[in-house]
Each structure stands twice: as structure tokens, then as C-alpha cells.
Amino acid sequence: SQQGEEDPQALSIQEGENATMNCSYKTSINNLQWYRQNSGRGLVHLILIRSNEREKHSGRLRVTLDTSKKSSSLLITASRAADTASYFCATVHNTGGFKTIFGAGTRLFVKA
Amino acid sequence: SQTIHQWPATLVQPVGSPLSLECTVEGTSNPNLYWYRQAAGRGLQLLFYSVGIGQISSEVPQNLSASRPQDRQFILSSKKLLLSDSGFYLCAWTPPGRGRGEAFFGQGTRLTVV
Q1: How many CB atoms lie within 10 A of CB B34?
Q2: Does B27 score more than 50 pLDDT?
Q3: Hey, how many other C-beta atoms are within 10 angstroms of the C-beta on A24?
Q4: Residues of B in contact with A44 (CB under 8 A)
Q5: On chain A, which terminus has fewer CB atoms closer than 10 Å, C or N?
Q6: What tens digit of pLDDT does each residue of A4-60 get?
Q7: Distance between CA atoms of residues A57 and A75, nearest Å
Q8: Chain A contact set for B49 (CB, 8 A)
Q9: Nearest CB to A97: which of B6, B45, B98?
Q10: A61-92 burial by CB neighbour count: b if 16+ within 10 A, else e?
Q11: DSSP B96
């Protein structure tokens, strides 16, 4: 079963606004990652946050991780039309440790 | 640099026909390899993963099988396709070892079973 659950399932915002997506998971993790997928394409890695980290930045991306709540958030600041895509969180779990499990994703639509 | 190749990009197959999707990775050794399936508008379902030649772990019982005949080659197969096998199939690799980092994806194969 999938571990990550993103919300919202879909998000529509105006260009320039911030977009926040959330992810929850069920079991302890080694790390959590966020990916982006343009329609009909493969996924592209955005950012990885380790279980002992609480916040990480990369350009306009900000990721937080709360292991006590088993949740993470991805914030995209000053969104652009080109940010329109689906965003997935993925977890690598301590048990086994080889499997990257993806959530159902959030579809982000940024209106110009 | 590492690259991953997945083909074909699209495939239309009749029910009951066999399937073979191939994925190869270049520029790395002993990668962990994965096959995922994505239904329209949904997340990725892990189908198989492999940590070495001949080592395949199946995540979901199904009509598909996977093989890893060479270190950097991962094949997804079926003897007889079902309508429910339609979907977007993605191959991915991660560096060897446990949970070391990001997954790198191929461009996907859109399979339509008719």
C-alpha cells in the first residue's frame, strides 16, 4: 500500500501566489522526497529531506518535515505558470530501505 | 553522467498478447531498479524492484513479471495482457545501497491494451 498521502488532490492558484502541498505517511522513514511530473512524462526529483532534518530550501522551494506528526509540506513561492504539474511526495522507509513509495500526488495549476 | 532509457514510449497491444518493456541504465553500477505503474491522474504503484542481477521483489500480485538479466537492464513482461494492464509504466533507478537518495526516472511507456 502507498505510504504517502498528499493533500490537496488538486490546487489552482494565480501566478505569483504561493502554493502549499502536504504529505502524510504512516511508518518511520529514512528520508522523504518531493518530485514533479509534467503530464505524460517521467518524474523529476525536486528535493530530499532526511529524517533528522526539519526544513530545507532550494530556490523557490521550501520543504518541512515533522516526524512526530509523520507529515511534510512543500511550499512553492511566487508561483509561475511553468510550475503547473503534479507533485508527489515519496518516502524511503527504514525497514527494507530499498523501496521508494509514492503518494497519489497533488495536481497544481497556476493560472497566468 | 548517468542516464536511463526506457522504450517504447507508447504501445498498443491486443488482449492476450505478450508484453516486453525494457529499461537500461548507463553510467552507474549495481543500481537499484524499479518498475512503477501509474493509472491516469493517480500516484505511482510500485510493481517490482531489484537490488541486483536475478534478484526481483514483487510488490503486488498481478499478471506481470520482471527480470534483470544484466546489471543495468530491467525488463517488465507479461505472457498474456489483460485490459486492466493498461497504464503508464515508469522505470527508475536509485544508487546502490539503502535509501541513499533520489530516484531517476525514465520517460515512461504508455500501454493501452485493446
Answers
A1: 26
A2: yes
A3: 16
A4: 105
A5: N
A6: 677 888 999 999 999 999 999 988 888 899 999 998 889 999 999 999 999 999 999
A7: 9
A8: 98-99
A9: B98
A10: bbbbbeeeebbbbbebeebeeebbbbbbbbbb
A11: S
